[in-house]
Amino acid sequence: MPHLIPDTGPQRVLAASNFVYTVGSGLFLTAGVLYFTQAVHLPASHVGLGLAIAGFVSLGVGIGVGHLADRYGARGVYATTLVVQALGTAAFVLADSFWLFVLAVTTATSAKAAGLAARSPLIRHYGGDRPQEFRGYLRAISNIGISLGALLAGWAVQVGTQSAYQLLVVGNAVSFAAAAAVLIILPSVAPKPTADGPRWIALRDRPYLLITTLDGIMAIQFKVLTVAIPLWLVTATTAPPWLISGTMLANTLLVIALQVRASRSVDSAAAGARAYRRAGVAFLASCSLISLSAGVPTWAAITLLLTGVVVHTVGELWHSAAGFEVSFALAPERATGQYLGVFGLGAGLAEAVGPTLVISLCITWGRPGWYIVGVLFALTGLAAPLAVGWAQRQQEARQSATPLQAVEQLPAT
């Protein structure tokens, strides 16, 4: 990374808040499910159902809260989402039944989705000439924070007592509250003036909705790394189980080192479209390599898995950079929060359906399923330039039209 510390004060504040937040996220990502199954003693099936409910409920929250951030100021709205997430996470220690668990995790998950949308106007305002590149920097910082959180969570898992797990939850909640406190020193961003016409313009922007859908399909690639590869490694290959940690470490280090550079090279919506296409090809190659790791000697399985993960990570860098660029470039500045809230729907759907899809195809079906998943990514990447081109043509038409004509060009709902 060429710059370990951002150039401006507001960027440093956002980076510091993001780092504190992601340390707490790393705690929960590593041991959250274990807390509910080992300390609270909820059945694993109930935990999975509760997380799925929370995921679906949170899908629409980002749009509304993103709109509030546009209208009433992003800093206050974003800080509020962090406080709500801290309270929802702290409530985990009281969630001793299924429905209390669902209530707490839905609150925390919805606040997380809302925060991602509410933060977007801040990134756009303080990100300089290339807010997309700054977004890539924040993603690299996120991986550092999550890695540190995962190391701390290892202590709770090793001790294995209820008190240790509860301390983990409390630490998670405190990190979210601390991330909100850091924002106090961030200068506020004036709300954007409202414009005549429909309020929910992002939901009427059909090209943007299509791009959101395509990005959501490609976002299933995250579940390939965190769900499919670990299960495939253990059940279908002769590779040692410790390689699961090795693959995650390789992915994390590459993202930390290269995400900013990848984002810098994707500097327009057209470049983002091409990055989507390259990402799809990389995911196809990665899935093919991983599928070949079954039924071969241990050394070959290790080589194929690590090579597949490296190729997958290259695709992930391109996919993330493309999403950063396209989601911002095609969103009107006055409705950044609303548009980025809509864009988050794709990742939310991938979060909800991705695990079941990759398990059904890659694990249950086996090698043919890996090829199908890879082809799905490749076709999605090929479709992205067409969707981005459609969105650019519509954007140019609105910019050249009068305000009344721009409203009339929106599709009816």
Features:
mainly alpha, 15 helices, Growth Hormone, Chain: A, 413 residues, 2 domains
Write up what this structure looks like:
By secondary structure, the protein is an all-alpha fold. The chain has 2 domains: 1-189, MFS general substrate transporter like domains (Growth Hormone, Chain: A); 196-413, Up-down Bundle (Growth Hormone, Chain: A), CATH 1.20.1250. 80% of the residues lie in helices and 0% in strands. The chain has helices spanning 9-39, 44-57, 61-72, 74-90, 98-126, 131-159, 162-182, 206-218, 221-236, 243-265, 269-291, 298-329, 336-365, 367-400, 403-408. The protein starts with 8 loop residues before the first helix and ends in a 5-residue tail after the last helix.
Summarize this structure briefly.
This protein is an all-alpha fold and 413 residues long.
Q: Return the domain count.
A: 2
Percent range of helical residues: over 70%
CATH class of the largest domain: Mainly Alpha
* Ends distance: 45 Å
Report strand %.
under 5%
Number of strands: 0
CATH homology-level superfamily of the largest domain: MFS general substrate transporter like domains
- Determine the mean pLDDT: 87
CATH overall fold name of the largest domain: Growth Hormone, Chain: A
- CATH architectural type of the largest domain: Up-down Bundle
Biggest sheet statistics: none
The helix/strand series, from N terminus to C terminus, equals HHHHHHHHHHHHHHH
With helices defined by DSSP (H or I, 4 residues minimum), what is the helix count? 15
**What best-fitting shape do the alpha-carbon axes yield?**
globular
Structural class: mainly alpha
